[in-house]
Amino acid sequence: MIVSSALMLWKGLFVVTHCESPIVVVLSGSMQPAYYRGDLLFLTNYPEPVRVGDVAVFRIKGRNIPIVHRVIKVHEKDDGYVKFLTKGDNNNIDDRGLYDEGQLWLEETDLIGRAKGYLPYVGMMTILMNDKPNLKYALLGLLALFVLIKREQ
User: Fold this and answer.
1) Residue 89 is a catalytic residue
2) Domains in the chain, start-ordered, CATH in brackets?
3) What is the pTM of this model?
4) Most buried of 20, 64, 84, 104, CB within 10 angstroms?
5) Is the separation of the CB atoms in 45 and 16 below 8 Å?
6) Which of these, 68, 66, 61, 113, lies nearest to 86 by C-alpha position?
7) For this structure, is 69 an active site residue?
8) Residues 5, 9, 11, 14, Cα dihedral to 10°
9) Which member of 21, 30, 75, 94 is catalytic?
């Protein structure tokens, strides 16, 4: 029941936010001081234009982990085609070195969503469980033990 409730909540967020991944965790310090490692971001992906200053979450071809950086330049054509450039607030240079080989700009198809809110440090448990897999297994074991001990008769 807990798993199905969590799945329904996740799918509900997907529908409301128009975003394939409505919640992400900041994994590095590249966006400090706006966002710190472990902050939980809430994303939306409504059909609205990308603007300079937006905090974009995007995926690069060939990489599974999304990147959270700020849009610093936008180029729009008359036909509606948009491309944009990003940079981490705490980085000295733009993200062209992170993009796919030969790629100089991101397109709207690379965009997962834009940050609309956050909870500070709530995602640290996710980072700890990824950095230390044994912690993940210990936590799952404790949860299973708790379920077995607290079963209603």
Assistant:
1) no
2) 2-122 (2.10.109.10)
3) 0.82
4) 84
5) no
6) 68
7) yes
8) -170
9) 30
- With tokens 């940079």, the residue in question is 87
Find the helix or strand (DSSP H, E) in which 135 lies. helix 133-149
Beta strands in 7-145, from DSSP E residues, in sequence order:
23-25, 40-44, 55-58, 67-76, 82-87, 106-107, 111-119
pLDDT in tens, the chain (153 residues): 777 888 888 888 888 899 988 999 999 999 999 999 999 999 999 988 899 999 999 999 888 889 999 999 999 988 888 999 999 999 999 999 999 888 999 999 999 999 999 999 999 988 988 888 898 889 889 988 888 888 665
> CA-to-CA distance for 49 and 37, rounded, in angstroms?
27
Amino acid at position 45, single letter: N
**Is 94 one of the catalytic residues?**
no
- Candidates 39, 54, 69, 110; catalytic one: 69
Please say whether the beta carbons of 144 and 138 come within 8 A.
no
CB 90 within 8 A of CB 31: yes
